[in-house]
């Protein structure tokens, strides 16, 4: 057995991640259990432990079960992530190993169990040799493979080889990237396969055919993969994150037949395509891309006189329109460019002149609104723009296609199929032919859009069919009736109460800051996803506090976090010391009363007025980062000075029950108020625009 220093090692934070608990729980285990593994490295303040010994101890204590092989692989990749580096970095050697196993079956013995030091020294040379043979010298240089593997990397290679033997190499690569897609790289670097397939199909149908495809912000290569699967003869990509570019290159290589000759017909370069274009002379047959969104520092100052801005100089706030023009500059005349963009690009005032010029010259052919939640960022509306580089001498078209796939009853694959159906109908019709499906899509005369706003949001130009409007509002009214019915019994069963002892014990209780120092509460880093048992303070929801009881996305707390316009603050109590709902009740009382400008007296919540209790919720969506940061800092300070009495867990439960009842009551009340307001507006709008008529 190799020396301890060469084994895979984990920190206390990583142990907590393995077991699904807070760091305070790991500290308690070390103090209370004499058989907890001893440190094998690190420092006194930040010790490191043998991963094998820790996993063995956790299983013996029943704190984790034997994980599936796929989850063990994912866990090792998580352990390799460097907070200061690219999140995609651990995927590069992992995918390079799969490429080696695919192209050289004899190499499958290299990561087999044996001497870790030998594997750590020999495997990198084999990986590098295969990378040069398959990807060429430049491609291999992009990967930046290590000259010596670390202990955790060796363990990962062994598990990956086992998983590839069990599931197949192509499936393993796809599963690996898919499972880590949203966390490996910038937001939006991973486009879900169904949506990526639609973008590639639109580009093919719009004239790209089976030619050369370019993605100038290729992320992990999802769009280029879909183009390859539709017969593209050459692929070119560029990505600012070098490790993410390496992931894209390896995915393309793994998706290609193992007997394909070298050099392969694809290239991926590292670098920002706006500032340092890797192919300024390239004129692809089609461009596919999901560029970065909302970038202020995209190079507006240094690129002011760039020849790519044929349709107007993009404003500092219009990075997406810079990418649109870059795509048109890199596609051949008559070739399509299909981009996934935020919905705001269709309506922002700062971009109206460029939008108008794109329409006048016939470069913009279609805008399709997608259902919310179909891709990251999941709370934002996304649009597909279909563009074509004008052919010199050809008259510009007189209509543009607007599609609203997000406003109808269809969602998911049905909505995506509707976009392709609309494009097929539009592209096959003459300019003078009416192309329309009420409430779904319409070929709009370009002259009708060239006003002071040039707002291309599809819903603005597609009035609902009366039957659809009536059905949607009837369903909303039924949902509101259900919420009101749920509130009726709750109104009569609000938690009972009696006069307190007023012995001063609550006012003398320790603060959360003191509990954090004592290890009873952990304050996770901002942005970390909540775990079951976390107390969630929603900064954009009027001081509302929830307890995360299930995985995010299933519980009310998870939904609230996804919907919040400002960040959520997490508190992670040690369950052996504090009941989460007990803690949540005291936190919410403190935060909301302090925002109301009073103390903790009951009268402050009423005399201060309803508006003052929801100051953070009053911040409009898209408020400046300064305001958001101020709200976050203020709430963090409020939370830390919350006093929480020292009570046994059994007594805490007597408080936790009414605290939870009140949270459910308030949640339903707020949902009913919001739905009622939207229902009122919907009926008003329908009666005004004619899609609804009063009952006789």
Account of the 3D structure:
By secondary structure, this protein is α/β, with parallel strands linked by helices. 44% of the residues lie in helices and 11% in strands. It contains 21 helices and 17 strands. It has helices spanning 12-19, 23-32, 51-60, 69-80, 91-103, 116-143, 151-167, 169-180, 193-208, 222-229, 242-255, 319-329, 352-360, 413-427, 466-491, 512-518, 556-563, 580-595, 602-607, 625-640, 649-689, and strands spanning 9-10, 41-42, 47-50, 212-215, 234-239, 266-270, 286-289, 336-342, 364-369, 382-388, 399-404, 436-437, 441-445, 521-522, 535-538, 545-547, 568-573. The protein has a 10-stranded mixed β-sheet, sandwiched between helices. The radius of gyration is 29 Å and the shape is flat. Mean pLDDT is 80; it is low at 1-6, 551-567 and 597-635. Residues 192-405 form the DNA methylase adenine-specific domain. It comes from Streptacidiphilus jeojiensis. Keywords: Methyltransferase, Transferase. This is N-6 DNA methylase. InterPro entries: DNA_methylase_A-5 (IPR003356), SAM-dependent_MTases_sf (IPR029063), Type-I_RE_MTase_Subunit (IPR052916).
């Amino acid at each position: 057995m190799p020396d301890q220093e060469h084994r895979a090692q984990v920190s206390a934070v990583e142990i907590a991640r393995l077991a699904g608990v807070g760091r305070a729980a790991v500290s308690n285990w070390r103090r209370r259990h004499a058989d907890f593994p001893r440190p094998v490295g690190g420092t006194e303040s930040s010790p490191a432990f043998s991963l094998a010994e820790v996993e063995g101890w956790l299983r013996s204590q029943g704190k984790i079960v034997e994980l599936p092989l796929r989850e063990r692989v994912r866990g090792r990749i998580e352990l390799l992530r460097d907070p200061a580096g690219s999140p995609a970095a651990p995927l590069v050697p992992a995918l390079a190993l799969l490429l080696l196993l695919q192209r050289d079956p004899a190499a499958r013995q290299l990561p087999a169990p044996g001497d870790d030091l030998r594997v750590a020294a020999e495997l990198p040379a084999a990986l590098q040799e295969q990378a040069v043979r398959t990807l060429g010298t430049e491609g291999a240089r992009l990967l930046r493979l290590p000259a010596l593997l670390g202990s955790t990397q060796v363990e990962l290679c062994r598990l990956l080889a086992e998983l590839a033997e069990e599931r197949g190499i192509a499936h393993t690569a796809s599963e690996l990237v898919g499972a880590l897609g949203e966390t490996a790289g910038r937001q939006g670097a991973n486009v879900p396969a169904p949506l990526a397939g639609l973008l590639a199909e639109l580009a093919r149908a719009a004239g790209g055919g089976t030619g050369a495809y370019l993605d100038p912000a290729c992320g992990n290569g999802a769009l280029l993969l879909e183009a390859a699967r539709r017969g593209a003869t050459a692929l070119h990509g560029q990505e600012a994150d070098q490790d993410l570019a390496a992931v894209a290159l390896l995915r393309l290589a793994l998706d290609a037949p193992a007997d394909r000759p070298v050099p392969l017909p694809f290239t991926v370069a590292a670098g920002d395509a706006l500032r340092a274009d890797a192919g300024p002379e390239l004129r692809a047959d089609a461009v596919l891309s999901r560029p970065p969104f909302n970038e202020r520092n995209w190079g507006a100052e240094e690129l002011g006189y760039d020849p790519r801005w044929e349709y107007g100089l993009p404003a500092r706030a219009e990075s997406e329109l810079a990418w649109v023009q870059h795509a048109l500059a890199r596609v051949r005349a008559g070739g399509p460019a299909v981009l996934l963009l935020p919905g705001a690009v269709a309506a922002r005032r700062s971009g109206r002149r460029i939008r108008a010029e794109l329409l006048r010259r016939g470069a913009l052919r279609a805008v399709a609104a997608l259902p919310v939640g179909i891709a990251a960022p999941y709370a934002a509306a996304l649009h597909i723009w279909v563009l074509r580089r004008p052919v010199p001498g050809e008259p510009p078209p007189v209509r543009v296609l607007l599609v609203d796939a997000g406003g109808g009853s269809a969602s998911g694959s049905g909505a995506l199929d509707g976009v392709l159906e609309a494009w097929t109908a539009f592209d096959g019709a003459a300019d003078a032919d009416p192309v329309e499906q009420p409430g779904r899509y319409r070929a709009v005369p370009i002259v009708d859009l060239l006003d002071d706003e040039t707002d291309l949001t599809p819903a603005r130009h597609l009035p609902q069919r009366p039957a659809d409007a009536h059905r949607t509002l009837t369903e909303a009214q039924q949902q509101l009736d259900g919420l009101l019915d749920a509130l009726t019994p709750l109104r009569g069963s609000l938690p009972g109460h009696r006069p307190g002892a007023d012995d001063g014990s609550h006012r003398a209780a320790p603060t959360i800051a003191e509990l954090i120092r004592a290890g009873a509460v952990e304050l996770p880093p901002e942005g970390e996803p909540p775990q079951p048992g976390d107390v969630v303070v929603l900064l954009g929801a009027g001081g509302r506090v929830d307890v995360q009881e299930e995985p995010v996305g299933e519980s009310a707390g998870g939904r609230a976090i996804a919907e919040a316009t400002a960040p959520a603050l997490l508190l992670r109590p040690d369950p052996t010391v504090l009941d989460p709902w007990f803690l949540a009740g005291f936190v919410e009382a403190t935060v909301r009363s302090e925002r109301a400008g009073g103390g903790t007296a009951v009268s402050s919540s009423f005399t201060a007025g309803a508006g003052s209790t929801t100051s953070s919720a009053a911040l409009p969506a898209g408020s400046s980062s300064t305001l958001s940061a101020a709200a976050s800092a203020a709430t963090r300070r409020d939370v830390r000075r919350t006093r929480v009495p020292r009570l046994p867990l059994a007594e805490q439960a007597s408080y936790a029950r009414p605290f939870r009842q009140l949270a459910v009551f308030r949640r339903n009340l707020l949902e009913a108020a919001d739905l009622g307001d939207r229902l009122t507006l919907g009926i008003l709008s329908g009666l005004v625009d004619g899609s609804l008529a009063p009952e006789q």
